[in-house]
Amino acid sequence: MPSTLPPFPTPQGPAEKTPVVVQLGTADAAEPCLRADAARNRARLLDAAARLVAEHGAAAVTMEAVAAAAQVGKGTVFRRFGDRTGLLTALLDHSEKKFQASFLSGPAPLGPGAPPVERLRAFGCAALRRACADLELQLAAEPCPERRFIVPARRVRYGHVVLLLRQAVPDADAELLAQTLMGYLEPALIHHLTRQCHMPMERLQTGWHDLVERLTATATATATATATATATATAAGTGTGAGTDC
Question: Are 149 and 161 in contact (CB under 8 A)?
């Protein structure tokens, strides 16, 4: 990457109007409604960052490079996005909202209307495909360990998996099982499996189906065995009590 990138052309005409969408967890909570000029500046910065990714890769996206490409001061980029992770997360925001809308309100089996285990299968496969489509950018946007599990987008996904697990296996520890499933969908693991181990996407999707089946089947079997043991112990206790009374 050259030390100084050529300036980006000034956008012509008014910015394209963005449709109103439900905020699903990736928007800036501190600024839910931006002024028109602030929204235009934000769009200009994101356009510059997107072009840097397309031309030089995600590694080239620094706050300084985006400021130079958008012909603004570096402080403007920091004020708008906080840090590089915030900038890269904002770049992923549009596709993340589309993905969230698909599993929260889209057609079955990914959306409502299918059994919970079937929705879990569809969710993982869709998440794997999306991760591969944006893998370099997602890896670059990975937050530090202190923030990794509290990023709004991840919390939305995690909450969805917890909900489906509670429906599929009501007596299981849905929170811990959900963390196990979410670990399978981490961008770093997907990068390792697909780019370093050269595993095809079909194998990862089959593995996801197998993991969902094993977790839900094991949890169901454990819950059933526990319920049976409890019922047996209760019946035995009742029988002993009846004999004593006699």
Answer: no
Compute the CA torsion angle 35, 38, 98, 58 (nearest 10 deg).
-170
CA distance 76 to 67: 8
Q: How many Å apart are CA 198 and CA 114, to the nearest integer?
A: 32
Q: Give the integer Cα–Cα distance in Å for 242 and 152.
A: 57
Long-range contacts of 138-147 (CB under 8 A, 24+ apart): 138/92, 138/187, 139/58, 139/187, 139/188, 139/191, 140/58, 140/59, 140/61, 140/88, 141/58, 141/85, 141/88, 141/89, 141/91, 141/92, 142/85, 142/187, 142/188, 143/85, 143/89, 144/85, 147/85
Distance between CA atoms of residues 172 and 177, nearest Å: 8
How far is 95 from 131, CA to CA, in rounded Å? Answer: 11
Q: Long-range contacts: 191-194, Cβ < 8 Å, 24+?
A: 191/135, 191/139, 194/132, 194/135
Q: What is the CA radius of gyration of the chain?
A: 24
What CA dihedral angle connects 210, 216, 217 and 223, to 10 degrees? Answer: 160
DSSP letter assigned to residue 172? S
Q: What whole-number distance in Å separates Cα of residue 105 and Cα of residue 102? A: 6
* 150 φ/ψ sector (left φ>0, alpha ψ -120 to 50, else beta): alpha
Q: Dump pLDDT digits (tens) for 93-134.
A: 878 999 999 999 999 999 999 999 999 999 999 999 999 988
The answer to whether residue 15 scores a pLDDT higher than 70 is no
Residue 51 clears pLDDT 60, i.e. is over it: yes
Q: Whole-prediction pTM value? A: 0.69
